[in-house]
């Protein structure tokens, strides 16, 4: 490959402007073809920031690898809010069910350090705590303890 470009783009809404246009402009690829393929491949992540890697050759051919959006973006999309709390220990912006936490953990599983859904859910719980999101109506900062106590084994243990 002649080169690699990495960028965060809004899922399904990339355009030839920044951040892609200035990076792709000096390359031999057709910018509109790249943008179209990115939008096609990221449509499922509509509006979320999605990491993409574009590898291109001198002949203008290219391949696109789409990553998984950041955990915070997945949580915001799943729980239906725009921005996290400025005071996450005091002001809560949303509540997630254990099923929603599991869904986000499964979506992120390839990027997390965990070996199973139970521990991946604990990582997602940590992000919930920093965003001001409660889990099952309780402060996300106590989620690890509840998971370790087996409170959610019926959902999280395969």
Automatic annotation (TrEMBL):
Domain of life: Archaea
Region named Disordered: 1-26
Keyword line: Ribonucleoprotein, Ribosomal protein, RNA-binding, rRNA-binding
Domain Large ribosomal subunit protein uL11 N-terminal: 6-62
Classification via CDD domains: Ribosomal_L11 (cd00349)
Gene Ontology MF annotations: large ribosomal subunit rRNA binding; structural constituent of ribosome
Gene3D superfamilies reported in the protein's UniProt record: Ribosomal protein L11, C-terminal domain, Ribosomal protein L11/L12, N-terminal domain
Entry GO CC: large ribosomal subunit
UniProt cross-references to PROSITE patterns, sorted A to Z: RIBOSOMAL_L11
InterPro entries documented for this protein: Ribosomal_uL11 (IPR000911), Ribosomal_uL11_C (IPR020783), Ribosomal_uL11_C_sf (IPR036769), Ribosomal_uL11_CS (IPR020785), Ribosomal_uL11_N (IPR020784), Ribosomal_uL11_N_sf (IPR036796)
Domain Large ribosomal subunit protein uL11 C-terminal as annotated: residue spans: 68-135
Single Gene Ontology BP annotation: translation
Any single Pfam family the record assigns to this protein: Ribosomal_L11_N
Family (UniProt): Belongs to the universal ribosomal protein uL11 family.
Function (record text): Forms part of the ribosomal stalk which helps the ribosome interact with GTP-bound translation factors.
PANTHER family: 60S RIBOSOMAL PROTEIN L12 (PTHR11661), LARGE RIBOSOMAL SUBUNIT PROTEIN UL11M (PTHR11661:SF1)
Subunit organization: Part of the ribosomal stalk of the 50S ribosomal subunit. Interacts with L10 and the large rRNA to form the base of the stalk. L10 forms an elongated spine to which L12 dimers bind in a sequential fashion forming a multimeric L10(L12)X complex.
Name of the protein in question: Large ribosomal subunit protein uL11
Organism of provenance: Halorubrum saccharovorum
